[in-house]
């Protein structure tokens, strides 16, 4: 059988749709995604705009039980995945402006679909150039989280449309020696900067040479109280760390966004699992966003693995999705095309699932706090009970 290049595979659902009969397909998808999501269909005007602008749109709904004492708390979240627009050899200003235009069009579609909170992908306003280890010109993309051109651009859209926008950027900390951070800026419905969160965990894997540019963040695990619920941002590599997800939950998050940039051949087997697991374990909604496309850079770089040098990072496989606290999730967006995924969620589902499963009641934080406090000591000894047979491997 001939092999298929990763960048040519559209999405998992299209493969199922083309190979399974309808009666089997519905059962398979229920097993894969759970039974609590419905495809709402896309309004004609949104479909038309997406067709003209060449991006996909999908809209799903998560249901919660009707309660007697609490009214439904309905929120529409939108997540956007996209390719860079211009070659990495173009001027920085041209690249950023092209991305501004692209994202404005997709945000407009999200507003037409009545989205309340929008999250963009990691470092959305630039190529993901950290593979190169070159400081010039890529550090020039860094800008102020509070007053930079990207924040000002999105502030206008937030205020005009009364939406919350999460904007992950490369931050230049002008008040602290011009150092750089990987940061998500939260812009409120009135256009003000509600706050920011800096990436907690930095990868040293393959071509992800991010610590050449910035180090681990110093903002803890903030949760932002908005008109549309309590939201948090677990940036990219932080999704591999269960305690990172845990702390956002302990701080009260109801929706945690995971803006990412990750490639096929490395993380794809983990992608559909991690954010979904986090939603289940912590009793909140998760929104996993990954950029899409293959980015090529002017100069060759190596991965330190003995293989030939190259100019392309790898294929960013998109596949963005939303997961609920009950373990259900939406199908993903395309692996190869730009897309907007909208999920209508009822935040009451968070408490309802906690009541059923009792994970928060039974999690024994005091036990693990005591154990972890011992683990971090230099003289810690592992709690291993050894066999007396002498046959240990």
UniProtKB/TrEMBL annotation:
GO terms for molecular function: beta-ureidopropionase activity. The keyword Protease does not apply. Keywords: Hydrolase. Gene3D superfamilies: Carbon-nitrogen hydrolase. Pathway: Amino-acid biosynthesis; beta-alanine biosynthesis. It catalyses: 3-(carbamoylamino)-2-methylpropanoate + H2O + 2 H(+) = (R)-3-amino-2-methylpropanoate + NH4(+) + CO2; 3-(carbamoylamino)propanoate + H2O + 2 H(+) = beta-alanine + NH4(+) + CO2. One of its GO terms (biological process) is beta-alanine biosynthetic process via 3-ureidopropionate. Residues 75-347 form the CN hydrolase domain. InterPro entries: Aliph_Amidase/BUP (IPR050345), C-N_Hydrolase (IPR003010), C-N_Hydrolase_sf (IPR036526). It is an enzyme of class 3 (hydrolase). Belongs to the carbon-nitrogen hydrolase superfamily. BUP family. This is Beta-ureidopropionase. It comes from Parthenolecanium corni.
């Amino acid at each position: 059988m001939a092999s298929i290049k990763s960048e040519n595979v559209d999405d998992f659902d299209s493969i199922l749709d083309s190979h399974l009969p309808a009666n089997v397909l519905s059962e398979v998808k229920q097993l894969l995604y759970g039974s609590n999501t419905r495809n709402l269909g896309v309004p004609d005007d949104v479909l038309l705009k997406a067709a003209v602008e060449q991006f996909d749109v999908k809209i799903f709904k998560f249901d919660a039980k009707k309660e007697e004492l609490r009214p439904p708390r309905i929120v529409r979240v939108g997540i956007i995945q996209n390719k860079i627009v211009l070659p990495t050899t173009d001027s920085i200003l041209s690249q950023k402006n092209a991305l501004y235009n692209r994202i404005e069009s997709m945000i407009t579609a999200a507003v037409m679909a009545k989205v309340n909170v929008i999250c963009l992908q990691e470092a959305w306003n630039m190529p993901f150039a950290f593979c190169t280890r070159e400081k010039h010109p890529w550090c020039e993309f860094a800008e102020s989280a509070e007053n930079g051109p990207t924040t000002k651009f999105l502030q206008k859209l937030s205020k005009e449309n009364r939406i919350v926008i999460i904007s992950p950027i490369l931050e230049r900390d002008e008040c602290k020696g011009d150092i750089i951070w990987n940061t998500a800026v939260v812009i409120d419905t009135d256009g003000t900067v509600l706050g920011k969160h800096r990436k907690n965990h930095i990868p040293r894997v393959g071509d992800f040479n991010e610590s050449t540019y910035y180090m681990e963040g110093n903002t803890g695990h903030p949760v932002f109280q908005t008109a549309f619920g309590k939201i948090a941002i677990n940036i990219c590599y932080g999704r591999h760390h269960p305690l990172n997800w845990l702390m956002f939950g302990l701080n009260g998050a109801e929706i945690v966004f995971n803006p990412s940039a990750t490639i096929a051949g490395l993380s794809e087997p983990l992608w559909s699992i991690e954010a979904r697991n986090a939603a289940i374990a912590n009793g909140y909604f998760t929104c996993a966003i990954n950029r899409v496309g293959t980015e090529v850079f002017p100069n060759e770089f190596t991965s330190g693995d003995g293989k030939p040098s190259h100019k392309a990072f790898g294929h960013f496989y998109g596949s963005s999705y939303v997961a609920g606290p009950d373990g259900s999730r939406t199908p993903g967006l395309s692996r190869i095309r730009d897309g907007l995924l909208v999920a209508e969620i009822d935040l009451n589902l968070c408490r309802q699932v906690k009541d059923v499963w009792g994970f928060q009641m039974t999690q024994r934080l005091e036990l693990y706090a005591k154990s972890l406090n011992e683990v971090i000591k230099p003289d810690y000894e592992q709690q291993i009970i050894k066999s007396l047979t002498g046959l240990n491997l």
